[in-house]
UniProtKB/TrEMBL annotation:
GO terms for biological process: carbohydrate catabolic process. Residues 1-20 form the signal peptide. One of its GO terms (molecular function) is carbohydrate binding. This is Carbohydrate binding family 9 domain-containing protein. InterPro entries: Carb-bd_dom_fam9 (IPR010502), DUF5916 (IPR045670). It holds the Pfam family DUF5916. It comes from Undibacterium fentianense. Transmembrane segments: none annotated. Residues 255-317 form the DUF5916 domain. CDD domains: CBM9_like_2.
Amino acid sequence: MKVFLLVFLSFVFASSTAQAGFQAHRLQAGEHIKLDGKLDETAWLKANVHDEFFQTQPFDSVLAHLRTEVRVAYDDRYLYVGIKAYDSVPNDIRDSFARRDKISIDQDFFALYIDPSSGHKSAQVFYVNARGAVMDGIYSDTSGDDTAPDYDFNVSVSRLDDGWSAEYKIPFASIAYDKHSTTPWSLLVLRNMTREQRYRMYSGAVTRATSCNLCFSHPIEGMQDLPSGMNWNVTPQLVVRRARDEVKDKPAASNGSSDLSLDLKFRPSSAVTIDATLNPDFSQIELDSPQLSGNTRFGIFVQEKRPFFLEGADIFRTPLNAISTRSIANPDVGLRYTQRDADKDFSILTSRDAAGALVLVPHTYYTGYANSTSASIATDARANFRLGSLSLGGVLTDREYAGGLGYNRVLGPDFVWQIDKNQLMRGQFLFSSGNAQVAPNGDIAKGQNSNGHAAYFDWSRGDNEWGMSVNLRDFSKDFRADNGFFSQVGFRSVNSDLTKKFGRNGALHEVNVYLSTEYKVDSDGNVLSKIVAPGIRVAGPYDSSAYLNVSPSVRSRVNQNGELFTIGRIATGFAASPGKQVARMAFDMTIGDVIDILANRLGRGGSYSLSAKLRPLDRLEIEPSFATNWINRDLSSLGSERAYTETAFQMNSIVHLSAKDTLRLILQNARTTRDAGAYASKVAPESSRQVSSMVYTHLAGVGSAIYLGWTRNQSDAPGYSAKRRQSELFTKFSWQM
């Protein structure tokens, strides 16, 4: 009788209250939600149902072919979201094991995009897949997901006879919001399902052409009297390590150490977060993937992954990389203040960076580096004001080098204007000033003051038939931002893209023909590059995509007084998600004329890369990747003698021992070979670097974990530097209180 009553009530409430938006149900006295993923409590039956979902992939602008139900509830401490996904073939649900923040598009998952400001500029995102693995972070339409931030929340899933369901329990303390705002929060829900096709289904009518997914979110009505109480946590961390350093023909050196660090997070109100760190340890951040850099003139951007720098990271994100916290290489103390109100955001970060770091010094034709022989104080601040569809912001950065070695400062405004759901305009202007210059010995030293500027503007618009964008950049040669990431200055450029969309064609879901152009000159008016590159992109079954890009006559200059080369090349690639065992595979290749930068010479060559995500067993993930570049000595044929070859390989393997225990093995190998006779200057005929890492991790919760591991680095450049091997055993304990 009880089961019949529950079913009847569920039918009545679902039929009578289903609507386009979200209506939150406040839990009454005696009502509670047991987090088991089943949505069978009376509170869920009283909650309004949102069941209008739209498909954007593989078919665009149509109602979803399967039913999805969303319910929202809350009490004095938590926001609850219940989701049920109906499935006509529930045995095919992709419920793969995954580490935190490693959910991927080959799995069945839900994602909540929660925007407390309803500004439609950014949102906190909470993922869960059908196995119960989670991923979280910050999302913005201009830069996508940043999954580095971790929030304290719980979610449970349940497999059903007709699909699967999930129950989220998110503490209000994990969401940054203005308690006094009268504007309802916004919510967008994504359901991802991968079979012979990848299906993306949203709770709003999101289209492929839009530049503003969050504009299709719906308000959450009915949430009142939300908490604004103080809360805090402190996370001590203890690292014990034993290291050994071996250099050929020298005695081996061994040493042991133990370090204690402390992270503090204090929230005096729901809108304000204060973070502090003392002697932070970042040793267990996952290894950055090896990148080909031997024939590259410019520095390569690396994403921030260190926990302390992640609070409010979206606020620091602007059209230009004015703030890049990876420039703070070795902080020993740091403090951050972040405030999020209904119509504005503000964050300021200051930290002391120990001596010994490399400072990025960009030029027109290459990226240089300088040694910071003293400690420095790095301060970054940004404010962002939301005025309807327009956001106005400002950036201020300062780097003060100890010992009177000088300073570097950057200041400037930026804006983002979401003209409509398909049209976006952005811009930023930065002014730099500083007297921290590069001395002849390569160290940072006080010198003459220099000023510079950087300007950026872009506009994009798209619909179901056409897509177009224009990008303008102007960087003076004296611009420098020691707290940001700029690999090149001293140029002006115009880039444009025009795409004709032909829609569905037989088995293909998308057929797009495009034309990309670039015109770029240095500060003296010399042409750096001229590109006209037509191409075609298609998408098909199994979330597959392919492209072909032809550049018959690219003009490029790599040295200030060098030749303006004429280059012809072809680029192509393919990616697909064949099934659960071969979850993803991708291939990219470019072939044709290549400039050998070190020799300032044109030769035949190219590059290709392959990567895959494999799950041969339910608890085993293997992610191999391989990339190579090569250049022949001349243009006579593709089979000419090689002047330069570079390869990079990584094998990342994960064994899921349990939901909280993983064993990770990473093997990396990078190798470069050159024909010394093909270069006027002295070069290393061969250099290599190998990295091995094995780490056992037990995650007890956010901020609480145990790491046990071993790493080894080996480098060798015969005739140039002695073979060196470094190894380390470590144990790390982290516990949040």
